[in-house]
Automatic annotation (TrEMBL):
Keyword terms: Aminoacyl-tRNA synthetase, Ligase
Domain of life: Bacteria
Official protein name in the record: tRNA synthetase class II core domain (G, H, P, S and T)
Gene Ontology MF term list: aminoacyl-tRNA ligase activity; ATP binding
Domain spans labelled Aminoacyl-tRNA synthetase class II (G/ P/ S/T): 127-260
InterPro entries linked: aa-tRNA-synt_IIb, aa-tRNA-synth_II/BPL/LPL
A Pfam family that the UniProt record links to this protein: tRNA-synt_2b
């Protein structure tokens, strides 16, 4: 059972939570197999880091800030409001230096800023609660806050592209084993400014491809070229690093697997029975 609100907030019951942890354990086995260390980053990202990535230019519709409330102004505002208060008025909010991330990988690039990596680069795995200011929400398929697992490559161009191909093979094989009919589709949402040179190159080599099951994207592979390497001054050997990542929306996998197997317990048994 999923308890949902009209604001994209859902509660996972015990069975759904076990299923989420089980499928995430499968993704962690990918990381272990590829010798990728796991990191856990802060829940917030700095606004200036996102701005460095042109985030507020390319994704203004998704942005969410974490802001401090001024106690004096808050108290005065609440004293004049009906309780419980439905919305916190903007006039009691302080300017914010922190944002709620919409993807898990931003923190990795910010953490590696200014670093020189070995010639073959590095890889990192992480999970984060991510947030998106969507125009609508739909159960576990589209949430205000959701769990994202990512396996990220930061290194030379050839290694970043190899990570994409290996990831696509691994996810395709996993879906086949679970009996999921998956399609790999080029995503339509932008990443680079539409007028930039990188955006024009995107037509030759897709930046983002999604794993789609029954019309729902349950994961993606993303190639950012040297964008983050340039913006964060990350070197791999003597060159600017390229980056690529494999990403999974964990709640979407819970939804998809529950639909596929007709219930949470059957889906859990199938995932735990994977070779």
């Amino acid at each position: 059972m999923t308890i949902a609100t009209d604001n994209g907030l859902s509660v996972l019951d015990g069975g759904q939570l076990r299923l989420l942890r089980a499928i995430d354990a499968v993704f962690l086995r990918f990381a272990d197999r590829w010798d990728v260390p796991e990191f856990r980053y802060p829940h917030l990202v700095r606004s200036q880091d996102l701005d460095k990535f042109d985030y507020y230019d390319n994704f203004p519709h998704l942005g969410l800030a974490a802001t401090r409330l001024d106690p004096a102004r808050l108290g005065a505002a609440l004293s004049e409001s009906q309780r419980p208060v439905d919305r916190i008025p903007t006039e009691v909010m302080e300017p914010s230096g922190f944002a709620l991330p919409s993807a898990a990988c931003y923190a990795i690039y910010a953490d590696l800023a200014g670093s020189t990596l070995p010639a073959d680069g590095t890889m990192r795995c992480t999970v984060a609660t991510c947030f998106r200011n969507e125009d609508h929400y739909d159960g576990l398929q589209r949430l205000h806050g959701f769990s994202m697992r990512e396996i990220v490559c930061i290194g030379p161009e050839d290694r970043a592209k190899q990570h994409l191909e290996r990831a696509k093979e691994a996810v395709t094989a996993l879906c086949a084993e679970l009996g999921l009919e998956v399609k790999l589709a080029v995503a339509t949402d932008p990443f680079f400014d539409k007028n930039s040179g990188k955006a024009k190159m995107q037509k030759l080599f897709p930046v983002k491809e999604e794993f789609v099951v029954d019309g729902l994207a349950i994961g993606s592979v993303n190639y950012h070229r040297n964008f983050f390497g340039e913006r964060c001054a990350i070197q791999a050997g003597g060159d600017t690093a390229h980056t690529s990542c494999l990403a999974f929306g964990l709640e979407r996998w819970v939804h998809t697997l529950t639909e596929r197997f007709g219930g949470t317990e059957a889906a859990l048994s199938a995932v735990e029975g994977l070779s």
